[in-house]
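Hello Y.,

Per our agreement to keep a running log of every chain we model this quarter, I'm adding this entry. I've kept the format consistent with earlier entries: sequence first, then predicted structure.
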Amino acid sequence: MKRLIALFVLAVLVVAALGIAPQTAQAELPVTFYGTLDYDSHPYDDYPIYIEAGQPITITLDCGPPKPGPLDPMLLVYDPDGMPFAGSDDAIGDDLCGGYSGGIVSFLAPVTGWYTVRATSYAYWDGYDWGTGDGPYTLMIEGVFTGVPGCDQLVLPPNAAGGQMLATTTAYWAPGEITDPPVDLALGTTAIVLGLDDTGEYYQIAFACDYLWVPVDTIGPNPDAVWNGAALPTDVVNFSK
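Predicted structure for the entry above:
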């Protein structure tokens, strides 16, 4: 029988129980994302968000539109170290998502950093194709967050993926235009990969609150617990602040 999942790390429960007030920050309107999952070819979408310690966040993942829908959604959150932090399944209270319902998590961020919100299906999380791993979803993220200066201006597409430097290299401001003074990325440094340039020779990355470019042979998939070696995106992009 399918199990009801409502996971919160102990640190979050302690912070909430103590009633610690969040730090003063600019309130943001809810941000809504739409996507479609396929159990075999596209089983999850990851959304990296920057949260400062003490800030409240509420995240809702539902099926559709339209609703009822065939997808049984599973909401997961990973902390800045890439470890499982929170999750929710069947928390909305209806049975309109493949016979089940979506998930909701609310928490005060215990530490500052990049958290990863994952929209997936219970079937993929469980490792068994229940027939409810395909279909559209709606993800809403709301709360109070400021990020660090400049980071709130960065656009991170839903298909962005974690990357890890395969060799120490100097980054580029634009394809063929090396940074001056040089921005050196050491072997093992991680960054968010956004996509390719139109020649296919450079990846655009989000790093240190800025957009940079690196040669394609210097960065590969990030094998950590968040990204699990997910393939880097191949869309042609050119984001700017």
